[in-house]
Fold each of these.
Amino acid sequence: MTNSGGDLDTLRRVTDRLRANIERVISGKTEVVDTAIVVLLAEGHLLIEDVPGVGKTMLSKALARSIDGTVRRIQFTPDLLPSDVTGVSIYNRTTGAFEFRPGGVFANIVVGDEINRASPKTQSALLECMEEKQVTVDNVTWPLEQPFMVVATQNPVEMEGTYALPEAQRDRFMAKVSMGYPVEEAELAVLQGHTSANPLDDLAPVTSADEIRRMIAAVNQVYVSPTVQRYAVALATATRTSPHLLLGASPRATLHLVRAAKATAAVAGRDYVLPDDLVRLAPQVVAHRLLPSIEATMSALDTTAILATIINQVPIPDAGRA
């Protein structure tokens, strides 16, 4: 293995700084904050779903401001156009040529606020950039600067004025998390610290885009044994054959699960992935991609509960470095 202990020590110090900085704004949500950091280091994208007012946008902005890189915010609305997201070619009468004006996705961290309030056509404008980290407009392809991460918030689909995300869009988000309501002490802290000033105003970067790129390179060196790889495939295969699911996990889901597990191992100071990493991450990485059967829906079984049953049925191997 080419990953050194020094790389992992540096990575852990940086992630500790990131976590502490974000938690100056978001109190009592360490697990959600850790998932956001893991997704960043795994070169994925994060979907945050919950009811209005629980801190979804605050979390995404806090993560973006903690990194000294470029940040763009896109407010998704019903009248938002795909060109607002990707960019558009404008004819310049002075030069007699078309000039490309970049859209909101041209940044290291893109905050997509209330993504499911835009039409499916506009949501689909994100498909290429999220998967291939590039944008094609008028047959010209423009690469996106690395690191590149979309942090999108959405309200529950049953709320008024929302559209369900297309399956292809959901599958491009590495993880989906829910903020949940704060505990009483955390909500009191919000009242004490957020009523006189916006805590985001005092939030300064604690790392740089260059340092994040080095951390991503270190995560990529984390070892995944053949046994752990087979276990990841076994979990995905079990979702595809489950009678409770109309749509199982895609190969992209398997890849995202392993990449997130590598980042989790690195943050924990390990240079190898354990099967337990996959078990712990599966609800956040896999569940949002699944579609329950009609019978499961009528029985009030959601995809998280179905996935938990599947995980219990697939034998966990004894493997790490082996």
Note: Residues 5-22 form the longest helix (18 residues).
Amino acid sequence: MTEPAAAAAPHRSGARPLGAVLCTAGLALLCWPHLVTSAVGLELVAAAFWIWSRVAEDAHAQVSRWAWLRRPAQALWLAVAIHAALPTMGHAAMAEARGAFELLRWLESGAVVWAGLELLAALPLARPFSDLPGPLLAMRPWLPVMLPAAGFLVLWQHAEHWRDVAVVRGAASYLLLVTALLGTLRAFGRRQWAASLRWLMISDSAIAALMVATAAVKSEVSVLLWVGSCGGRAFLLAGELRGASPRRGPLQSGLWRIAAWTASAALAWPALLVLGFERGRFDPLLFSVASVPVALTAWVTVGRLVEAPERRRMTRLDASASLGHVAALLTLALGPLALVIAWWGGFEAAWPGSVVAMLPATLGGVGAWLRSRGLGVAGEIAAPADAGTGAADGTPRSPARGGAAASRAVARGTFHLVIAVERRLVLFVGGLGRALVSPIRDLHTGDAQEYLLLVVGIAVLALVLPLLQ
């Protein structure tokens, strides 16, 4: 070992547990229903990714890749400042506010939604982060799953700060629906099962956040449905990176297939019911758009979660096998349990609507199961011994099979087309904003401090003038 490498080794060994402690503390703070604690939690998560990036082999690329994690924290700090500026006025009182108070209310709700949507990959600035491995070498393929979880927690814990603003709620619902569709398209287009799992978690989190936006069920029910679906996928991803342990053996792989499908179907059912049958009327357009990601999620879940062939002469029975069975049973039970709690709490579903809302997940799951039976034991995913070349993280890739390869190519092309259009729109809006702001820059002498004071003065004037009318 060379001297620079030997000197960097202790630094890296100390940075890894420090980042783990910061990230764990940050996620724990996100579970606390206060804006300040959530802002601090996002700062800790961003700091953990920065520390891991600094000690990575490709530190420069990793630091620039994850620098955007500071933006959600900054958005929440803006919401904290606005909320602290009006401590005596609650959201119920501000619902009828006008003028500057209405503007502050919109800014606060927009800041909270910005933080949550960016972590959920629902904004063009951070849309494809799940395709990139994390900065920590030992957990690179698994680390990105924490970001959509953090985004859902922000939107769920602080729903009172943004759900009552109709414009912000409508924009967030549209972006979440688009994200769920793009997430399932990307999961279907990826050949690696581990990458598909990461994108399915984004899609599930977007549907859960959409359920929060529409107030389809109570708060505790929505989080139970989300934990059942995304928690199961997180366990599947962790097991996939350790030798595909959840897919070893016919009993465990079949149990996980049923459990994952049940959890995702239970998560999507209330959202489809509210979107398609709100106020007792059937909305075919909105229901059809929302049904596409649900059906694709069921197709990918059932069609690609197949048994991995055993590579040993004798099957080894250890603690991981029993843990996989327990986790599968828990995932299977959480979704129906949450729906029972929702029904017990007063959630009602009309007979035709409840059946129609189950059709997308049912048709997608049954279609994928029939197709996998027709393809044989290997299904859409080949075992590591049969896959030829695998991913960089050791996970197998599915072989190209005629129509399946063409449909995956269409899904990948659609995803990249939407991403390219969104980035061009962002560049256009950014250029337009710089063009509009450029005359203001000519009003000062060029000193940086003077320009900052000018911007602060204009902002204060914009807030004070409506109060003087």
Note: Residues 409-469 form one domain.
Amino acid sequence: MYIVIAILAFGILIAIHELGHFLAAKACKVKVNEFSIGMGPAIWKKQGKETLYALRCLPIGGYCAMEGEDEDTGDERAFTRQPAWKRAIILVAGASMNFIMGYLIVAILYSGSAYFVGSTIVETIDGFKYAENGIQPGDRVYSIDGHRIYYKEDFSTYMSRSDGTVDMVVVRDGEKITLKDYAIAPDYYTDDQGNEVYMYGLTFNIIDANLWEKLKYSTYTSYNFIRIVWMGLTDLVTGNAGLNEMAGVVGIVSTINQVGEASATASLALMNIFYLVAFIAVNLAVVNLLPIPALDGGRVFFLLINVIIEKVFRKKVNPKYEGYIHAAGMVALLGLMAVLVVNDVLRIAR
């Protein structure tokens, strides 16, 4: 069941993405030849005034086929004939819809929350080993290694990436204090129930979850999704992570299935799965806006380049050349996806 949910979730995420392009294109009076939900043979079609609407048998995506996407067809309503600002809006609309969807899922998941855990330290557990010249009760953790801290989850996230020594900024009595090269690490402490727990030895403040706090927490969570994706991309560029640590569609579906099976109840499984789906939605939004050929971000990048060339040289670039570059980029992306699928299958087999 969880595998089916995961596959459907992927299809919905891509369909929502294409719906963003479709709505923006219609709003900008661009001709849309076909809007399809799903891929493969059509199981339902309806010809509108100018757009063919289709529902296809494979729930793994969809597409919005606009007139003149990669070449000038001569139609005044073709995509390539539109002003740069209209084309930019249409290109960004898909990723925007993914981000909005991710945010709405998060907001719904947290709508029933009673409280959140903030970033202000209420107390340190008896035996706290890092109090000298360091954190004190009443401090609000402002940043760790330059990364802003909003809630306890942020503290845990960025401390987990450290080697035990961080540059921490805390707000104490209204003043920012920098704890340079502050050594702090989790250790074994005894909690109020007498249990030995592996933790940082800190207790953070509790925030009542009224409507405003729920919306704020949902916003920060969505923002943190972006930060986590960016950290992953940075690790790839710097070599701290390799292809073997990346997951493709098969790996993500497998992870969603594992999360569902590991949850104590079906309702908790759905909550955990939808949390993952929200993260994937924001992930798709961020990755799709990268300046890589074939992605929307790559198209926006070339759009800016074309605008500069037109301003400087008073000459338009033939759209077909950009189309060739995006086609090559698509081949490269499909190749990367194939490699990730193979890695996913091998990882599952092992």
Note: The longest strand covers residues 32-47.
Amino acid sequence: MKNVNPKPKCRLLTAVVIGLVSVGSLCAEEKSWKDETVLISPQGDQTVVRPLEGDKILFRNADPQLAVEWGMANARTTVVLAGQYVMSDRIDIARDDVTLIIDEGAEISLNPKTEHTSITPGFRGRNGKLYPHPALIYNHGRNNVRVMCFGTLVGPGPIVFDGRNEKRTCGIEGGLLLVTGSTDGSLWLIDSRRVHVPLMAPDSGIDAVLVLEGCEDCKLGMIVNLAAKPGGQTGETVDLNSSNRGIAIDRLVGERSQEIIDCNGSHANVKEIVSVGEPRKLLCFTVRSGRRFTSRPACPDRLDVWKATVLEDVADVRRRIEVPKLPDALPRFTVKATVEVTLEDGSKKVYTKEVEIDVRDGGVKPKKKK
């Protein structure tokens, strides 16, 4: 085991203010979050929307996409329960301050027989051409949106937060993105500010777990990219594609990665990097790699890493995920991811991240722009 560039740890003292709330206001708050929560589930060849309590059907449609979008248009919290959902097109998030939770047993995919909306403009390749970039869940310019996926997202571009606008500013302010289920492709944040990504630990290795372009002041917790097969390799854990500023990362865990972090025209501060097995590259700066989506200006490359550990002689690595039983766990629940690495000498290294979610608080509201 190697320790690279160790730095002294710092302690941050946080003041917590506890206020008194009357019994009446607590009851009103409880009623409010229940009234603003809906459940999505399959029923025969239909997808139905029900309230959190009771069996009344609020909306039904043969197309699951329309059911999910109806839920988010009419409720603050939408929970997609276990089942298969084949969408005719992507799910568009149409308003600020909503939460979408995809349950552990839910699988969302696009119908191959329908025409799908792609992001416009699309992904610009190094040859300068634009290529279509589909998405399953698409947030275009909506603030304080929280998306949590414990289930399965099938297809490229599973979740995209897209804040691009004509002013070339961060068009998305606030929000949360959390993924512990299965995805086929990278999660994207584009031109977004103060989005919190506390945990990403999909169940199979992909090219890059999370890609950021044109983002500011985003806080990332533990981002994990483990190989799909024992002893296998992964691509990148985090790709700072271009023009990112003030990105704070707690921990990156990658298995025999092409690059655990790729930093291009960006600035990030990383507390810890853990390589499971020898990485092909630990860090990477790609000179003049070019922007793909954002039109925001790049900044000088700067990557501050406090601690990097290479676990060379790995015998086994296991990923354990603990997610809530929905909807019973609402409104407050904990998500936990554990990466346990067993070395050839029998010793173990364990890396854990717990995230507490409360659907009642809605996250930090963005400040009004002057």
Note: Residues 23-35 form the longest helix (13 residues).
